[in-house]
Amino acid sequence: MLKLKGVEDVYYPESIQEAVGLLRKDKEGSEVVGGGLDISTLPSTRIKHLIFLDKLGLKYVKKTDEGIKIGALSTLSFAENSEAIKDYFGGKVKELLGGIATELLRNQITFGGALGKREPYSDIVTLLLTLNAKVVLSDGEWDEELSIADFYKGNFRSLIKERIIKEIILNDFDSSYFFSMKRFVRNATDIALLNAGMLLKLDGKKIVNSTFVVGARPKPAYLFGEATEFLNGKELSEELAEEFGNFVESNVDVGKDYRASKEYRAHISGVFAKRMLLEAMEG
Ligand SMILES: Cc1cc2nc3c(=O)[nH]c(=O)nc-3n(C[C@H](O)[C@H](O)[C@H](O)COP(=O)(O)OP(=O)(O)OC[C@H]3O[C@@H](n4cnc5c(N)ncnc54)[C@H](O)[C@@H]3O)c2cc1C
Q1: What separation in Å is there between the alpha carbon of 154 and the centre of ligand 1?
Q2: What's the pLDDT at 4?
Q3: CB atoms inside a 10 Å sphere around CB 111
């Protein structure tokens, strides 16, 4: 935060209403702080007012009738070590969270910050899109629940200049659902060259419904709709896994940057797609 040269005020509001009031006073100059990672690593002279959310009670991960609620100020480590996440999809989400970046960073990255920034390589955005999570925006008086896909459909940055992200809700899934997410990294602490998530609703071997998300491509994560069309109604088999891998490699919307070529990203997407279906068969 010391790198931020233009800061005039630092606020610790005691209610969401107060936080939103401060934000709306100077939308351009104000910045809500989650873990503060982006704000401090990419300091901007535009930022004049920092609004910390620490006094709003937004650090929690709890099971409710609606699903698992994750307060916006929860860090990745906090969620990883919570009781509510421990057995979610047999511990797969816990394991995934524990593999992102380094422990120091996981202690700082918040769910609100990950969504508010939406880095193209974000693993959290890919994870939450795969799980069709809900984002709750609040002005302190009224909470609006949006699917994460709808949250990103329009100009989400303007939405969070009017309200704050209060929490994220993970749906409850019964045992007929299969989930998998994979990240392609060169070393354990690297940001992903590509990440992908899969959610299947199964009836025995039959795929009743499916979601396939690809992120860090290098554009932000997207729902690969044609993959859903390809999979729905089919039966899990080794042949299907092979065909799906080829389909994804040929049709996925990926591009190049200085870290990987388009062809390489397409190939990894296909390999991940095939492996996930094989995993679903084993499951
Ligand atoms: C070296 C490094 C490596 C990383 N590696 C990975 C990785 O491998 N995978 C991965 O997924 N992420 C990774 N990250 C994290 C990612 O890049 C972002 O830095 C992180 O998600 C930001 O979280 P934060 O809580 O610090 O957000 P902040 O910097 O506090 O905020 C980010 C933005 O979100 C807004 N915001 C914060 N909270 C709210 C809220 N509640 N409501 C509305 N707006 C809000 C802020 O105003 C700001 O615009 C890495 C970060 C670093 C620095």
Answers
A1: 20
A2: 77
A3: 28
